[in-house]
From TrEMBL:
Keywords: Hydrolase, Metal-binding, Repeat, Zinc. The gene is CDADC1. Its EC number is 3.5.4.5. It comes from Crocodylus porosus (Saltwater crocodile). GO terms for biological process: DNA cytosine deamination; nucleotide biosynthetic process. This is Cytidine and dCMP deaminase domain-containing protein 1.
Length: 495
C-alpha cells in the first residue's frame, strides 16, 4: 500500500492473507513455516526503535519520538531513534551523510519537512512510514490553535516536497501471511526465556505470559494506532493519504496495522521485564567488573527482542534463530541510543541466491547424514558478521544478541571477530545433537557470557533464607503462594 497510488492497487495488496515475501535470501517454498516479509520486518524494527530505552527523557512537545531503519540492498545498515535534541531523520543524516544515496528508509512516523528535505536531498531511493500520527503531531488539542496550524502547515510542506521530488514517499504494509500471528504466539510462549521462568518458579500462575502480552498489546495500540477511526481518517487526509480513507481500503489498512502491533507485542512479551530475571553471568563468573560492563537490563531485552523478530525470517522450518550485533562507543553520540550503535544482524538461511529446494531440509532425526541440512544452513551469527555495516573496533565494547546458544561452529567466529559480550538463551548449552555441538560456549574464555536466568545474587540470598527457614523448622511462604500477590509478581513496565 503506497501513498499516492490508486485505491485499486491497495486492494490487490490487501486481498488474501499471503503476500509474497520481498527480498528473501532464497526463494521460499509454499507450505513451509510462515515467514515475516522483509518489508514488514523493517516496519516492525522502526516501531521497536521508537521504543528504545531513552538515556535522557524527551521534553514534552509537539514533535513525537520516531524510530528509523536504514536499508541498502534489502540489508539493514542503520537503526536509529530520536534523541532529546534531534529528530530521527536528522540523526540519519549525521550518521550516514551521502551514504544515504539509494537507501530505503523506514520511519515509525511520517517525517517532518525539516527532515524530509535533507533526506530527499541525500538521494534516498524510498521512504516508507507508519500511517498514524506523524512526527509533528496532529493530535494536539484544539485548545492551542497555533500549534495545530503549524502541524497542518508542516504536513502541507511535506506533501509539496514529496510531489516535487523523485523519491518515492509511501506506506508499505504487507498483509501478514496466513497463520503468522498464531505461529508467533505459539512459538513465543514456548521460547527459552518464558520456559526458564516457568521452570524456575513452579508456583507461578501459568497465565503470566498471556497477561504480559495483553499489557503490551494495550500499550502499543495506544502508541501506534489511533483508536478513533474518524480521527484516523482526518489525519490520513491531512498527510495526503485521502485515497486510503474509503472502505475496503481503510479497513484493510487498520487490520494490517493491528496485526503488526499484535505481532510486535507478542514477541516483546516473550522477553519480559519479570521480577529478578534477566541476562546475567553464571554465579561463578559474576564478577564486579562484569556486572559494570554489562548493559542495563532494559537495553539488553530490547536488543534481544530485535533478534527474536529476525528469527521469524528463518528458512529453517524447525528452528528460527536471529542475531544482532551492537557496540558501545567511548562517548555518547547524538543518537537516541546514547553510546550504542548498530553493527549488523542476520537470521539462519540458505546461501544467498540459492533456490529453496536446492539443499536438504531434514533434521538430525533422519538416519541418512547426507540429506541433513546442517552443512548447508548459514547460521544467524554468520549472516550478522557477513553483512555487518561497520567494523568491530577492539577498543570498544561490542555485543551479540542471539536467540539461542551459539554452536561450536559460531563460537570461534564470535571470539575471532573481537566481540566482547554474548547475550543468549542457553537451552542447548553443553549438549551434542547429532551433527551440531554446543560444547564450546560453556568453555569459552575471554568473552563475557550473559544468559537469561534468575539474578545469581538474588538466587543466593533466597537460598540462604530458605536454608535458615528449614533449620528453624519454619516453612517459608513466598508471594507466589499468596493469590493476592500473584498479579503483583509481574513487572510490566515498558518492554
Amino acid at each position: 500500500m503506497c501513498g499516492g497510488t490508486q485505491p485499486g492497487q491497495m486492494q490487490s495488496a490487501g486481498d488474501g492473507r499471503a503476500a509474497s515475501t520481498a527480498g528473501t535470501q532464497t526463494d521460499s517454498a509454499a507450505g513451509q513455516t510462515p515467514r515475516l516479509s522483509k518489508v514488514n520486518l523493517f516496519t516492525l524494527f522502526s516501531l521497536w526503535m521508537e521504543l528504545f530505552p531513552s538515556v535522557a527523557h524527551l521534553k514534552k512537545s509537539q514533535v513525537k519520538k520516531a524510530g528509523l531503519v536504514v536499508v541498502k540492498n534489502m540489508k539493514i545498515v542503520g537503526l536509529h531513534c530520536s534523541s532529546a535534541e534531534l529528530h530521527a531523520g536528522q540523526i540519519a543524516l549525521i550518521k550516514h551523510g551521502s551514504r544515504l544515496k539509494n537507501c530505503d528508509l523506514y520511519f515509525s512516523r511520517k517525517p517532518c519537512s525539516t527532515c524530509l528535505k535533507m533526506i530527499v536531498n541525500a538521494g534516498v531511493n524510498k521512504i516508507s512510514y507508519w500511517p498514524a500520527d506523524p512526527e509533528v503531531s496532529l493530535q494536539i488539542e484544539v485548545s492551542n490553535p497555533t500549534t495545530t496550524e503549524d502541524a497542518k502547515l508542516d504536513a502541507k510542506a511535506v506533501e509539496r516536497l514529496k510531489s516535487n521530488s523523485r523519491v518515492r514517499v509511501c506506506v508499505l504494509l504487507q498483509p501478514l501471511v496466513y497463520y503468522m500471528v498464531q505461529f508467533v504466539e505459539e512459538t513465543s510462549c514456548k521460547c527459552d526465556f518464558i520456559q526458564k521462568i516457568a521452570k524456575t518458579q513452579p508456583g507461578l500462575n501459568t497465565d503470566f505470559y498471556a497477561e504480559c502480552r495483553q499489557e503490551r498489546i494495550k500499550e502499543y495500540e495506544s502508541l501506534f494506532l489511533i483508536s478513533n477511526e474518524e480521527r484516523h481518517k482526518q489525519i490520513l487526509r491531512t498527510i495526503g493519504l485521502e485515497n486510503l480513507c474509503e472502505n475496503p481500503y481503510f479497513s484493510n489498512l487498520r487490520q494490517n496495522m493491528k496485526d503488526l502491533i499484535l505481532l510486535l507485542a507478542t514477541v516483546a512479551a516473550s522477553v519480559p521485564a519479570f521480577e529478578h530475571f534477566g541476562f546475567y553471568c553464571n554465579g561463578s563468573q559474576q564478577t564486579r567488573e562484569m556486572y559494570h560492563q554489562s548493559l542495563p537490563q532494559e537495553i539488553a531485552r530490547h536488543c534481544m527482542i530485535q533478534a527474536r523478530l529476525l528469527a521469524y525470517r528463518t528458512e529453517d522450518h524447525k528452528t528460527g534463530v536471529g542475531a544482532v550485533i551492537w557496540a558501545e562507543g567511548k562517548s555518547r553520540s547524538c543518537d537516541g541510543t546514547g553510546a550504542m550503535y548498530f553493527i549488523g544482524c542476520g537470521y539462519n538461511a540458505f546461501p544467498v541466491g540459492s533456490e529453496y529446494a536446492d539443499f536438504p531440509h531434514m533434521d538430525d532425526k533422519q538416519k541418512d547424514r547426507e540429506i541433513r541440512k546442517f552443512r548447508y544452513i548459514v547460521h544467524a551469527e554468520q549472516n550478522a558478521l557477513t553483512f555487518r555495516c561497520q567494523d568491530i573496533k577492539p577498543e570498544e565494547e561490542s555485543m551479540i544478541f542471539v536467540t539461542k546458544c551459539p554452536c561450536d561452529e559460531c563460537v570461534p567466529l564470535i571470539k575471532g571477530a573481537g566481540i566482547k559480550q554474548i547475550y543468549a538463551g542457553d537451552v542447548d548449552v553443553g549438549r551434542k545433537k547429532a551433527d551440531i555441538s554446543y560444547m564450546k560456549f560453556g568453555e569459552l574464555e575471554g568473552v563475557s557470557k550473559f544468559t537469561w536466568q534468575l539474578n545469581p545474587s538474588h538466587a543466593s540470598d533466597q537460598e540462604v533464607q530458605e536454608s535458615a527457614a528449614r533449620e528453624n523448622g519454619v516453612q517459608r511462604t513466598t508471594l507466589l503462594d499468596d493469590p493476592q500477590h500473584q498479579s503483583k509478581k509481574l513487572c510490566l513496565g515498558n518492554h
